Amino acid sequence: MGQGSQGSPREVVLALPFTGWWLARNSPARRVPSHGTDLMGERYAIDFVGVDEQGRTAGHRDWRTFLASEPPDRFFSFGRPILSPADGVVVAAHDGEPDHAARRSQLALVPYMLGQAGRLRQGVAAVAGNHVIVELARGGAFVALVHLRAGSLRVAAGDRVTTGQQLATCGNSGNSTQPHVHMQVMDSAELSVARGVPMAFRHFRERPAGSAQFLIRQTAVPGENAVVEPLPAAEVNR
Known about the structure:
Blueprint: E1 12-14, E2 22-25, E3 46-50, H1 63-67, E4 81-83, E5 88-94, H2 106-114, H3 116-122, H4 124-128, E6 130-136, E7 142-148, E8 160-161, E9 166-169, E10 181-186, E11 196-197, E12 199-207, E13 215-220, E14 227-230, H5 233-236
Parallel strand pairs: 1-12
Antiparallel strand pairs: 2-3, 2-14, 3-10, 4-9, 5-6, 5-8, 6-7, 7-10, 10-11, 12-13, 12-14
């Protein structure tokens, strides 16, 4: 990982860590820090929520959607494969955190938000949930994929992984209100002290928020509320 012209780290370019359609949330293309904090290496982090062809995050709504919590398996993200975005070595693989109920209801979000400080006091596992951290083969940086499904991890610390290899499946563990994958690049494998590093993604389609058309992106950061899909290998070099 080199330095930018003014001493800031250069962006790390990665593959999207999934197949299919996903909605970009809390994108650093909108603001930095993307999640409103520099804690735990989150400065340039991005969230991806699985969607269907209509852009919906879940296919079902009922009274629980508006008044209570919902089971996580109601959401399209839950259980989708999460792939390694680069070649590297796994330096941390934490499992055993429960997948929480999901919350779209404002009423259900109130007690969740009140518990935010308590989760921070509990430490990394309570915030990140089940997670995998990969030391990238090039650049001396580390990529974290968090909120993974309990019991789904397929790798352990010390394993070598390649781009596109399945690491786990998407879950709703840790500090998460609905199933999604949170992704960030850092200068350290220790989330408690890591600083965020800019990242971008290669070879994907992006449908910007409010648009009906997909655009081809060779290297970019998805915009806020854009729907993205990795390009098939046959289309990458066209």
